[in-house]
Design a protein that fits this description.
Largest sheet: 4 strands, antiparallel
Shape: flat
Radius of gyration: 25 Å
Structural class: alpha+beta
Helix content: 25-40%
Strand content: 5-15%
Order of helices and strands: EEEEHHHEEHH
């Protein structure tokens, strides 16, 4: 009740069973959910969605994100990280698959230029350095003292403030239009290109806007809103790969234009 704003409200409370039912709403979008914690406040927390008028893909995404939040409340923040950071001059090894075709004939191996090998080493070093910095940042964050919130409060607050409120009120940083339609009934008419994509930093973009932003020069990969590096499982191409793909596309277009101009088409 401390942070819920009308028309959001508590719709059910069962102290003995450890269940709480909450209706959270921002503008015309709402989520009804049930949060259970048998041994409050430190017991395991369960979440179930009772109803919502959000698009189906967002409902599934929000439940998955909140469940991950629940698990993180009791997990070791350092779990899964290496015990020691690698040396400064030698980042952790990360395999880079070369796109060059393997030379079966040993005599032809000499035609692999030193420039291509140097480029591949540079790309490998960049990826390894990025991974090293990511691990270092995670360790720094995990080492900071954290105040543990009551688990039910943390779950409801996260679903309300970080997910529903963010997607319902935010505008796409690229096109400056609302991420979701003003009328929830219009969500079914929205194509896949205009679906809302949530980045790891928490900001929402239209899928088409994000694709265009990442795949065209200057191939920037930072969030418009917070400046964090854009990380999304659907967009994992390197900047070098995008630049190469763009150059090939432009070359093909130039060939077509020259052909049309030559034959007066």
């Amino acid at each position: 009740k401390e942070f819920l704003q009308e028309p959001s409200k508590l719709i059910g409370l069962e102290n003995k069973a450890g269940n709480i039912k909450v209706h959270i709403q921002v503008d015309k979008y709402y989520i009804d959910m049930k949060v259970s914690c048998k041994d409050y406040p430190d017991g395991s927390v369960e979440l179930s969605l009772l109803g919502s008028n959000l698009p189906e893909y967002l409902k599934q995404s929000f439940v998955a994100l909140t469940l991950a939040r629940i698990r993180s409340q009791g997990d070791d923040p350092l779990a899964g990280l290496p015990d020691e950071l690698p040396d400064e001059d030698r980042p952790p090894e990360k395999k880079v698959v070369s796109k060059m075709k393997k030379k079966i004939n040993p005599r032809r191996m000499k035609f692999q230029t030193a420039a291509s090998a140097a480029t591949e080493r540079a790309l490998q070093y960049q990826q390894e350095e990025k991974e090293r910095l990511r691990i270092q940042k995670l360790k720094e964050e995990a080492s900071k003292p954290k105040v543990r919130e009551p688990r039910i409060y943390a779950v409801v607050s996260y679903m309300y403030k970080d997910l529903l409120k963010e997607v319902a009120e935010s505008k796409c940083p690229a096109c400056k239009k609302k991420v979701l339609p003003s009328d929830p009934e219009l969500c079914g008419k929205v194509g896949k290109k205009m679906r809302a994509d949530r980045l790891y930093c928490g900001h929402f973009y239209h899928h088409h806007c994000l694709t265009t932003y990442l795949s065209k020069p200057p191939f920037d990969d930072t969030c418009h809103t917070c400046g964090a590096q854009i990380m999304h499982h659907k967009f994992n191409d390197t900047k070098q790969a995008l630049e190469k793909r763009w150059a090939q596309k432009e070359a093909r277009q130039q060939e077509e234009n020259d052909f049309n101009e030559m034959f007066g088409m």
